[in-house]
What we know:
By secondary structure, the chain is of the alpha+beta class. It is built from 14 helices and 24 strands.
Amino acid sequence: MTDTQIERESMEYDVVIVGAGPAGLSAAIRLKQIDADLSVVVLEKGSEVGAHILSGAVLDPCGLDRLIPDWRDKGAPITTEVTDDNFYVLGEAGQVRVPNWPMPPLMSNHGNYIVSMGNVCRWMAEQAEALGVEIFPGMAASEVVWDGDRIKGVVAGEFGREPDGSIGDGYEPGMELHGKYVFIAEGVRGSLAKQIDARLNLSATGDPQKYGLGMKEIWEVAPEKFHKGRVVHTMGWPLGKNAGGGSFIYHLENNQVLVGFVVHLNYENPYLYPYMEFQRFKHHPMVADLLEGGKRISYGARAISEGGWQSLPQLSFDGGVLLGCSAGMVNVPRIKGNHNAMISGIEAADAAAAAIKAGRAGDRLTDYDAGVRNGDIGKDLKKVRNVKPMWSRLGLTGSLMLGAVDMWTANLTGWNPFGTWSHGKSDAAATGKAADHKPIDYPRPDGKLSFDRLTNVAFSFTNHEEQQPCHLKLRDASVPIRVNLPEYAEPAQRYCPAGVYEVVEDAEGPRFVINFQNCVHCKTCDIKDPSQNIVWTTPQGGDGPNYPNM
């Protein structure tokens, strides 16, 4: 059988939702709240709901308040309220605390909660199923089904291709799931969102999307060092002038502390090694004192959309919409996007339910665009729209000063005095040539506070069936060695936080090796490769990380 001979069964729904994250699940719940008779299905590529969810996370409950006002009575796993907020600028041997009083009010975490978003999504899935939503985990949506330039549905549940991509004896073609409307809620740099954008050019009117790489470990620390509800953010060392970014340390519950590090992916030096910057960070005296005597129990990584207001694409198109991080709704200075993801799901559900009630199907839900841009999400993102481009252009000190003025004024008046700064070029294009930069000497991990990549990847519980095609596609197999190695010292060896990519020297010279089994689905390679030669696609459903409570 060839691809052109594949025949698939189809199922019809009112709304098909791709992704069981906070955006997709909020949309599903809201649809059934509006009309219990609507048929709604949610497809999730992880082995279970929450398996692929990784977030800091301090949750602003405003989205959940709007969706399920009695979430406290319903037993939501949201119980650790923030008790104190701490912000530090680090040097190599010490730190300076920035007082809270000069911070714009929007930066306050009063009334917010430290959570595992994986567990929050598991709970939200229970609420959705109780309302009659069908949720299918382990069902990767790999392909868009088109009717002209209208999205008709998706292909999900394809299994059993041979490693070379051919169709073998155990092949299962999957199904086509058709919807009057299709909601794309895959998260950052989703493969279906990329397919849709490539065809419809949804991002043509905005700035290029900007990204960060977020890496996170969960630590169990000594009881005397644990302070439930404490929030710590840092900037500065070890990144310095090499890259933008910073850290978070959140004291959750049961002596568990969430330790994370974010590196903005617009860095120039191709020798920068984001994962090793994270590991080095944990040796800062303030952090080492917290972690010494404790143990790391989990690790993961994922990209973060950081473009904000300037980078929002066209959100609706004939037959579908982009939700949450598929569109890019993170408030960068607050390091929060889950609340906006939830609100986007609510706005999309309201627009789709009204359209279906009016007898419409497959058209463009322009009310959703308007609801996002003119509503709470737009107000949230507009106020902070210059923080990221200021940081990129002015560095840490300049952006702290000018960004604070911009945010304070916007918070008080709703007006940004510096207008709207542009992000400029993409993160891939920002990568500099190796000849213009010096290698960075990173200390070896000590196995106590810091760890090598492969050891840490084991704590993400990642698994991929090896007898399937590699889901990390090269547009041109010669580019890594022919172009990226001489020009950029092949940065894939370093920017990947899971050790997927290697340059191996053998008798015939260097060769590029892809260890796709290690992939934690962060999408950094798809974003940062300077030649834009790597294309991240979905592996078989259920494969990838299995985060227990990220």
